[in-house]
Amino acid sequence: MKKKFILLLFPFLIFSADVSARNYIYASGQSVNNSSDSLHTKISTSKDTTIQKIKKEVMVPVKYRPLLGVHLFNMVLSVKKLETMDYRTTADYFTNIPFGFIKDFGSVGMPNETFLYGSGNISFMSDGILITDRLSSSLDLNLFESESAGSAEIIPFSRSFLYSAVNNSAAVNFISREPDARKPYSRLRYYQGANSEAMLDGIFNFTPVSRMNAYIELSNQSVSPNFINTDYSNWSGTGRLRYLLSQNINITGSYRYSKSVAGLNGGIDADSIITAYGASQLDNILYDNFRAPVRYSDRYQKSTINDFRVRMLADLFDNSFTDLSFYYLSSLKEFRQNEKLTVPETSIRRIADDNSSKTIGVNLRQELKIDLGEITSLTNLERSAFNSPLLAGETLKSSFSQSVSASFGLFGNSIRPSMFGKYLNYSNKNYLGFGADLFMHLTPSVNLYAGISSYEKPYNVWEERFVSPSIILGSQNISSGELTLLFRNESSSASAGYFYKSNTNALLSTTYTGLAAEEKTQFFAEKDLIINGLNFKIDFKMWKILFSTNTSFYLPSGNREDYKLPDYTSSGGVYYIDTLFGGNLHLKTGLNYYSMGRRDFIYYDFERGLSSGYNFNPLASNMDRIINPSLSPTFQVDFFLAGRIQDNATIYIVYENLLNTNYYLIPYYPKQPGAMRFGVAWEFLD
Description:
mainly beta, Maltoporin, Chain A, 22-stranded antiparallel beta barrel, five-stranded mixed beta sheet, 5 helices, disordered N terminus
């Protein structure tokens, strides 16, 4: 399959090289053909007046602008930072984000839970357009190509509600990789690991005709099963055409497709091991991929995403920026359990559910710079249709939102206060939100950020559908705050941050007594919750040694157990960094570490995308924590090497789980044992 994929990419490679080279030569003034598309031409006459040399001025495209201002650049993960990290998928970026982490199910391709600021409901955006699944208000990041992102904006905690139809408490904006349109560009990334794991991603950027730029990306990832029913396959593709209507207006059409098939074995069946071998043999068999029984040998999920957009980027008048987008998103999750009735339905129920959502919308962002700062308006209108056997027929949802923010630069921009507000109409109910933040440039090396907000939050589709009839839904009221102190110089950086959130009328997900084996969740309780945490992120370089850590603590004064959070998460490493061979090799090598603190036992419902740490007893009409001991802290060490050769190719070598530690983050999904993974990222035709 990998050879076929390489052969499939090869014609695109040749085509992009040929077409882009011809257009690059033309744009550089080496063509003698005049074009009516040219804004300006320069004619020079040599001694032979019959020969005219025409030089065309290249139009510079209007590029997408980040949601965050320049003063908040510290909250952006750049492509340079991303490419020096060890990552398989986009979810792995979160190991380098304050208050970010993933609950890993241990096998490649599993729909891991991603957390930011203590929340698993994150508004993921791609170039400002929400791509989060509207059904569950979450997203499986395996379905978003890691190589597509040129950078990632981590929206400040107090501003996150501005960018979602349901006012989520955390938000991330992935900004697409955008090569220089004036010259050809191609990039390949490939890696291979244990259990026939492999990933290949190809990017081709070229100019087929004058004023038009084309971007194509194809990606494939697959792995064979380590434990029974853990195989995975994903095909993704993106196409983008940009037309330069004028020097001030671009029109872009894009389409993204992704389809994956993931085996969902439900983890190792610990009860069967104890019954057959005794409790003393649990650990010996639990991590044995040949002997360990799984809970579901015939359960999987197919996920398909279609994302179509038409966008206009424009500088319509001085000191302004306009971003107008029309989009259509569809998501289909085909959940299958015991499909072939390999096990009697009296033991495992047969399920064949297709859960889909379709969303059409328009998004308008308008920025206007004034003498003291800038004003930004964001208008969004969308309509979604949901179909699922879990719903009572087709469910329609519509939303309209209008947010406005104003930022002012004082004392030479060393102090920038901002105010923002949002009006949301979701399913004919009104929700309001307000906030303010402050950025202070204290010294050339020290910055301070503080933000607060208060807003109302509607319930998502699953929450409305699976809530207990005894609960009358209104709206959730959320108050949030964040404080961050940042130090940065040429070689090192450090930050200390604190966040706080109070959420009234929050719903707690639970499982049924006797149905926990099926991991089906409902909402049987409403509770006022508080979550707060501390983060310390340090990158300290001494000589050629870099010490790095990103550590978050979730404080016991809040309801961290209700949010299913660990005591702490920590990741980082110790690295040797140097430039060798006359500047031809930029080397980073050392040890990565990942650690997660004590946490409670949870069940996970893959069909709904919900996890639960509670169990509901319908006879007693009460809800208790799942009776299991809390899980011990974990620690993993990896060897990591990344070498960039002549700024064109990067070689990666990783030995995961160097100490071959047996553990799991979520019961009972064993993490990968010690194994090597290597890869290369190669940029050429640049």
